[in-house]
Amino acid sequence: MRLRIVDAFTDHPFAGNPAAVALLPSGPFPGDRWLGQVAAEVNLSETAFAHPLPDAPDADWALRWFTPTTEVAMCGHATLATAHVLHAMGAATGTIRFATRSGVLTATPATPASTLAPTPTPTASTSTSTSTSTSTSTSTSTIQLPGATAITLDFPTAPLTPLEIPHGTGAALGATPLACYDTGPQVGDLLVELADEAIVRGLSPDLSAVARLPHRGVIVTAPARTPGDYDFVSRFFGPASGIDEDPVTGSAHTALAPLWSPRLGRTELTGLQVSARGGRVHVHLRGDRTLLTGQAVTVIDGELLTAPEAN
Description:
By secondary structure, this protein is α+β, with helices and mostly antiparallel strands. The chain is about 20% helix and about 35% strand. The protein has an 18-stranded mixed beta sheet that branches. Strand 15 (about 270-275) and strand 16 (about 280-285) form a beta hairpin. The chain is globular and about 50 Å long. The chain starts with a strand and ends in an 8-residue tail after the last strand.
């Protein structure tokens, strides 16, 4: 079985968020134990497993995502990586419909054009790397990038609920939160607003304390220091899910879009995740749906020698 490693939300290798993609034959998924063992062996923030659904009326592929320690309900970068692989190998054209734990999610290729800047080399802290959506939507929109085909994911918008700042949040992050939000059951993370971009970039959190906070992970964000190529910055820490810091978190941007869109007065924004690898996510808020656009690059194409096992 071929196993590809794809850098997602970037236009060049060794940036963005790497995900492994395993395409399986049609039929039931292998056992959860085997899927988890493969993900643990690969040891990236997510490994995506997909198989075709030739007889399904509302989806083309079944898709699941695993971190090294657990299965997750929603993952943006590994969905982008899977769609990239399917288009690159000619297994799909046009919009791909994925049946997932969070409903049917779509991935639509864009036409090469010329509006958005490439992913910059970040100046961020040094951490390691999860990212992790819902009802069917037929709306499609793409943001066009130069030089290569981009892919637009149609995900549900995370419902934001303001919270009292959970006890220990500031101490865990090493910074004073301005506000905190719950991101709903599908994302499941704590969204923390900080004062400025420099604080987000300079964070060196106490990861054991972050893991004890009452959410799956923590998204930190602030407005861009000088709006231009991007509008806001973020980082994501998920040690409770086996990933200290996720390089680029697509699902987090379904919560960041409704936070920043009303403040900045636009529905189309660009987020820069300022992890050590860095990556750019272009978002378009459409009410209860958020469109996430990015590019991806295959960096490794190999073979998994262990045969799938049933439960």
